[in-house]
Amino acid sequence: MTNEETISVLNDLIQISKDGEREFNDCAERVADPELLNFFTKTSQRCTEGAAMLQKEVSRLGGEPKTEGSFSGAAHRMWSNLKTAVAGNDKESILKACEIGEQHAVEAYEKALHEDLPADIRAMVEMQHQGVIANRDRVHNLLQQRM
After folding, report:
1. If we measure between CA atoms, which residue out of 91, 73, 100, 85 comes closest to residue 28?
2. Per-residue pLDDT for 93 more than 60?
3. Which end of the chain lies in a sparser environment, N or C, as judged by fewer CB atoms within 10 Å?
4. At what angle do helices 119-146 and 34-60 cross, to 10 degrees?
5. CA angle, corner 108, sides to 120 and 123, nearest 5?
């Protein structure tokens, strides 16, 4: 895999991480439940940290790291905001929107792991992939508890 291809893969993951950061931050702003507020706030911060790690690698490789989320992530947030506005800011709607976003992130990380990444970068992407899976599973479990 060329350096430019590696940078492209990492920049895609930066956008996914930024999407997650924004999604969880938006969710935190819509809930009053202390457990959910804590979870969303901490998860948003972990997404911020993950994006920063990826940005550092892109810079180290000589690339220009992305600083914003993706268009599809913004579209998903707009759809989620509209849906919860119509349905009300109920916990179930908010969690369902988060679950969809996290499944998208899992798929993006799995796609990246199918690439021939350098060993050190692969290890970092695998670690972040496990974190994204844990986020998705936690959101799913919270959703199941509330149904």
Report:
1. 91
2. yes
3. C
4. 170
5. 15
